[in-house]
Write a sequence for this structure.
């Protein structure tokens, strides 16, 4: 949640995708629902290394 709130704007309600790249970096993406009460933004986050995110190497 801190990464989603970092922009001080709309906070997405959930992640739509999470992946570990071949280099061990973890990425997440939110949905861009164009609903009446949502901004329609997509957020792509680099969360850090696999070890940092999941607590192991």
């Amino acid at each position: 949640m801190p990464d989603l709130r970092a922009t001080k704007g709309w906070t997405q309600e959930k992640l739509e995708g999470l992946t570990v790249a071949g280099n061990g970096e973890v990425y997440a993406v939110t949905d861009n629902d164009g609903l009446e009460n949502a901004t329609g933004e997509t957020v792509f986050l680099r969360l850090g290394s696999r070890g940092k995110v999941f607590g192991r190497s």
User: Anything to note?
Assistant: DSSP finds two helices and three strands in the chain. The first strand starts at residue 15 and ends at 20. The two ends are 23 Å apart (CA to CA).
